[in-house]
Amino acid sequence: MLRSLRNILEMIRFSHTLFALPFALLAAVMAWVAGARTEPEVAFRGRDLLGIVLCMVLARSAAMAFNRVADWRLDAANPRTRMRHIPSGTLSLGSVATFAVVCSIGFVLATLVFLPNRLPFYLSLPVLAFLLGYSFTKRFTTAAHFWLGAALMLAPISAWIAIRGQVVLADPADLLPAIVLGGAVLLWVAGFDIIYACQDVEFDVAAGLHSVPSRLGVARSLRLAALCHLGMVILLAALPLVYPLLGWIYLAGIAAVALLLIYEHRLVRPDDLTRVNEAFFQVNAVVSIGLFLLGSLDLLASRG
Predict the structure, then answer these.
(1) I want to staple 246 with a disulfide (CB 3.0 to 4.6 A). Which of 51, 143, 197, 250 is the partner?
(2) Splitting the chain (304 residues) into consecutive groups of 10 residues, what average pLDDT does each group show?
């Protein structure tokens, strides 16, 4: 049983939850600080923090497991992915599908943690459908990378709604800081997913799959990824305009993010994709965790 659990966690790359979770937590800290003095109904509650983490983990686990089920034939045909758990026989198709169903049900139930705020529960099924729908996008649209970005964009927006749902219902404009932060996440994810997809450009073309590299080629795809990351930095820099509580520590964090993204793009060249994994996994983890820590430190320091 422990071996099967370990294999499932390896399959869904559980550690990569760190990519989106820090942005959800940053949005939560922003929401709590914004309402600390004027809106007692959004005061910090430990169960809300637990609920955000639980929903993030369950939603991402469901989406990753569903993706492996939906793509197992493609994975088996692709030389880069044929040793993934289902094609290699390490895990059965049924066990992974069951895991996806359990995580999906768990995600919907976990939204009840936020009661009396009912918005997370009401939105749980549409959000889940959008997350799972990504698995089919490369079959019909080149915008699949941006669909994935939009899926992770929901992390900070959902965290904000989980904390400030009643305020958002009364004033939808209250959601604007989370939308700007979410937009930065969308462009960030789309950019690094385009870079990652460059590894499969030949297979995507042969299999008739839609991806930016199969449509534009590797060189132009890398330039588009760079534009996405430039857009991310611009949106992060614009966030204090709609959320003035952020200060110089956060701005220093943006500068660090920009330097990391420049480094990421220097690791990958059209004629050398051997360092894609380093760019994808190491740099992006530092970007998300670092921005969360510096943004939270800024907000907590301003309160003190």
Answers:
(1) 250
(2) 72 69 94 79 82 94 94 94 90 92 97 94 97 96 96 96 92 96 97 93 94 95 97 98 95 95 90 80 86 94 69
